[in-house]
Amino acid sequence: MTAAETFSICTKPSQHYDPRISENIVVWHGNRNGNYDIYGFDLSAKSDFLICIDEEEQEDAAISGDIIIWVDHRKGGYVYDIYGYDLSTETEFLITNIRQPTGPWRGPNIDGNVTIWEDDLKGYWEKYGYDIRGYNLATKTKLPICVNPSHQACPKVSGNIVVWTDDRNGNGDIYAYDLSTQTEFAICTNEAYQGWADICGNIVVWQDERNGNSDVYGYDLSTGIEFPICTELHEQVGPLVSSNIVVWEDERHSWRQEKLDYWFYGYNLSTRTEFPIARYDAIFGMGLQDFDGDTIVYYDMEGEGTWKIMGLRLP
Question: pLDDT by residue (tens digit) across 38-86?
Fold first, then answer.
């Protein structure tokens, strides 16, 4: 089997977080200038570039095609803004404002003209949880996607479908919303925990604990059929899907708890075959950050306080 190709995206001696990829562009937030700004890297030109270096904090970038979005703190106080940047016109624009989250929070996600996020409108996360809300860049309208009184987290969008982790049944389940029909529906409500869903086209994947450890399961929206992707006895975490390939972090090669030996594994949905991708030596997991086409972006820790952003092309 051909070895996976690894390459550096950002190795400057500072902190770099949450890389996201769309086609040939990778974006992230980093503090090389003393506060967090938004940066990009062109995989074709092999060069990085500035996106936003306002003197206040910017973080949690995401990208789809020519549009980059991020969370912006330039107003201060309890108001956060979601800003955008169009690579084709080199223009920055305000999308919407959101309330400062009161608990753990993941950044926004975008596909095409739709951006989504966890919303803390009620301002008391531990009691009310988060809702899922969105914004359509083409129509300039807000989208109330899920305002169930329980907690919703980790939304992802692909086309007209939004998926997320939902606690309404007392444990994590996977729910979805069709933007075209404005209808919500359940993907998986198994009594064990399901979370960290991802979606590409008709395929939804997630992390599932029904077998006593974390496995990877999937669901085909076109057929309504759920299927296991990897149920190996060790932990599989953080699945991501792009086209017909699913990737995840896998602990099956770990031999001592104090230094887990993670690998990236993959699964071809067309041929129904699993394959190892590359070893990822980590003290803890979740180095895998995003996946598009044949390229993974991930963390590699180099010394205390320094995170390198790396890329990997599938074999």
Answer: 999 999 999 999 999 998 899 999 999 999 999 999 887 677 899 999 9
Which residues make beta-bridge pairs with 21? 26
CA dist list (Å): 33 to 8, 12, 54, 58, 82: 20, 11, 10, 12, 21
Tokens of 42: 């062109």
- Distance between CA atoms of residues 161 and 181, nearest Å: 10
- pLDDT score recorded for residue 262: 80
Phi and psi dihedrals of 314, rounded to 5?
-60, 145
Q: Which single residue is written with the structure tokens 């009691």?
A: 127
Please, what sign has the CA dihedral across residues 87, 92, 98, 100?
A: positive
The model carries a pTM of 0.93
Q: Report how far residue 232's alpha carbon sits from residue 215's, in angstroms, rounded to the nearest whole number.
A: 7
Q: How many helices (H) and strands (E) does the chain have?
A: 1, 28
